[in-house]
Amino acid sequence: MRLDRHIAPALLVAAMTAVSTVWAAPFLWTLMASFRPDSFGAAGMASLLPDFAPTLANFRLALESGDFGLYYLNTTIVVIGILGVQLVTISLAGYAFARLRFPGRDFLFYAFLLQLMLVPPALIVPNLRTIVDLGLYDSLAGVMAPYFASAFGTFLMRQAFLGIPRDFEEAAAIDGAPWWAIVWHVLLPMARPALVAFAIVSVTAHWNEFLWPLMVINDPANHTLTIGLATFTRGAEGAKEWGVLAAGTLLVMAPLAITFVAFQRRFVESFVFSGIKG
Amino acid sequence: MHVFPAQTINPSSRSKRGIFAGNGSRLTAKRVLASLGMTGLAAATALVVASSAAWAQTKIDFFFPVPVEGKLAREMTRLVKQFNDSQKDVEVTAVYTGSYDDTKLKAQAAAKAGKPPAVVLMSANFNVDLKIAGDIVSLEPMLAAEGTTREKFLADFWPALHANATVDGELYGVPFQNSTPLLYYNKEHFKQAGLDPDKPPRTWAEFVDAAIKLTKRDGEKVERYGFMMPGTYDYLGWLMSALSMSNGGRYFNEDYGGEVYYDTPSMLGAARLVEDMIHKHKVMPAGVVEAGGVSTSFFAGKASMVMLSTGSLSFIRDNMKAPYNVAFVPRNVRNAVPIGGASLVMFKGQTEDSRRAGWKFVRWLSSPEILGGWSRFTGYFAPRRSAYELAEMKTFIGQHPDAKVALDQLAYAQPWFATYQTVAVRKALEDEIQAVMNGKKKAEQAVKDAQRKADELLRPYVDQTALKLP
Questions:
Q1: Which of A196, B63, B141, B460 could form a disulfide with A270 if both were Cys (CB 3.0 to 4.6 A apart)?
Q2: Does A131 touch chain B (CB under 8 A)?
Q3: Interface residue B197 vs chain A (CB under 8 A)
Q4: What domain range is B361 assigned to?
Q5: Is the pLDDT of residue B242 over 60?
Q6: Which run of H or E residues covers position B363?
Q7: pTM exceeds 0.80
């Protein structure tokens, strides 16, 4: 009996360690490769252990290969721009679907959810046409526009609002608060975990997006991180400079990774609250 | 108010007549405004708009993929800047567009959305597909305007490139960067294995024999493979066509986009060669290896012979520490390799001005000097024979015997696989060969299944053409 009590947690720890090692291996490798000198010739290329004097040469080469300052700026504009508009649209739409009564509400909601089933590449041409008609071709606004409304976010906010007891709103209504004040002062603060969870999903998705920005953007001044990275990683016929590739990849993912580590506790809490698994 | 005068000045009339158009259009604008009784303020605005616009050039977009590595993107951007600085009529924006496949996707999507790029550097075997889809224009009118003919224009280009440049007897693409598969080998390994490093294998028999001798084992574990080649999409289809052509095959019908020859003895032999090297002789790793993995293994001395594009020549020259050399792709029946690379095409839906501007840019990019410089920078061979008459090029070939071998192999080059639905039809074969590489299928079954799938994909086109009877 006593033995069991000690063995079970030990086994759990061992299992968790094994899983997290497998999960972390690519990141570790990227980290090692980016600091490894001479990364294409060395026989220890595949090694995860630091068996070399670290060098920053790969980072220098990667930074020289593209205007990273500009890419960071553009990607940040896109990601924040999309999220800013999304937070407004999904809160309002979520509120409408959760609280307002109007004919065809549920049908409309399910029709809205259908959007989740469409594969994004199928929408490239129609979306691009709309972007051209709106005069947003080759602009960051054009990259953002199709994402201003989010079916997933609307669904998430509707569920979050439905989970809040009506008593709170009724109390505010008795005090004479109009609907928008109820949303702003009562519902949104209580739905914060859902908002944070959605923000993480949205920011990560658009930070890493490649195909759509590639379709919309022509001017190098509007390039985002993923396109900038691809200019020196997407070789079709040739060989790869692993070290530079790894360094570039690290540069792209660093801001998100650092943010996540810094606010880890908060993020995990909001996922627990909102019921999403990362 | 601002909008109206700006519109009366036809933007195309400006650039068409170049710098001197300024006065003309300014006068027109003034007269139009005066006759309409506009206020002085509006007229002044129009003057400002007109005179600043009078110097504007025809602006066109040029889409280009980065087929090898990042420094090529920088070099291409530099070339475009050089063109823009060299003249005043045309300003080209160089737009990086990802891989060859991404470039096709983006160019076609942009065309459908009403923003067709003027010039695109497109994988040379997409021309048939793009022409059938009605996306690209015939370049014959531009040749006619110059008072030349297709035959005269193409005479300077290597004969192997002509087929992929033309569709249905008309010029659709101007070759820009071209390649063939090439066998790279490690000379030190040859010496260690008792092979003559100056006599690379020429036939399949010598090739398999060398691969067996070069493979180093420690019990069951292979420490060094005799041979490796990329097995990923695009590359694999290209290399399989090289092997089937070396086996006397044709791979596809050069004159008709509705036929491929997968279920043939020549392709079966090629598939069996790959199968045997992996599963029987065990001199090549099983599974699909990516091109980057192949070159990395070659650099690290983990593979003694590799089959890669001539487009990788510069990269390998820069990074290979051990002495290496290059050789023709070994033959079973004959020496033959497909060409690869990209050519410049022009999209439909351009104004007369941007078409003219685009052609001017195409002509500049495909001049012997530029092609020669690009070839030395990348390792691709220059499509024009006259590029090799230039002094810099002669010096370069003298200094780099490996580039000379790649050039010599051109005498045996064949057109590149191009059909209706090129990519899907190519994948039909690639999926099956990958199954062979993974040991999930036998070569006989694989080529049969590949043929069946390809025929299904080609059916709509075949029904519309060869099987459409009166």
A1: A196
A2: yes
A3: no
A4: 58-179+340-414
A5: yes
A6: helix B352-365
A7: no
